[in-house]
Amino acid sequence: MMSWKMYLLMISFLALMLAVLFMVAWPVVGNVVWQYRKSRERRVPGDEGGEDFNLADWKLPLWKAVLMALATAWLVVQFIVLK
Questions:
Q1: Alpha carbon of 77 to those of 14, 23, 30, 65: distances in Å?
Q2: Residue 80: enclosing H or E segment and its boundaries?
Q3: In 3D, which of 56, 47, 52, 2 has the Cα closest to residue 26?
Q4: How far apart are the C-alpha atoms of 22 and 69, rounded to whole Å?
Q5: Are 9 and 28 in contact (CB under 8 A)?
Q6: Which DSSP symbol is given to 78?
Q7: pLDDT grade, residue 16 (50/70/90)?
């Protein structure tokens, strides 16, 4: 049986790692989506192009990253590690 201290340490460590991953991966995914949409739109002759990628639109708020990381870490520890 695992102690509460070890259980909470595993969740907190995994949550910290996942929060950093989410903060880094979110803008990368946004850029990929933007590039895909840009490549799929039709080109009109004489058109200069669409809007540029705005990173601020795809910036993940810290509280959302922490909540997603905590939920994911709890699910991983509870149902995968302790199985």
A1: 9, 21, 28, 18
A2: none
A3: 56
A4: 8
A5: no
A6: I
A7: very high
Q: What pTM value is reported for the model? A: 0.75
For residue 11 the two structure tokens come to 């969740």
Residue at 59: amino acid letter: K
If you search the block for the tokens 């880094």, which residue do you land on? 24
Q: If DSSP states are collapsed to H, E and C, what string results for 17-67? A: HHHHHHHHHHHHHHHHHHHHHHHHCCCCCCCCCCCCCCHHHHCCCHHHHHH
Tokens describing residue 55: 């990173």
> How many other C-beta atoms lie within 10 A of the C-beta of residue 41?
11
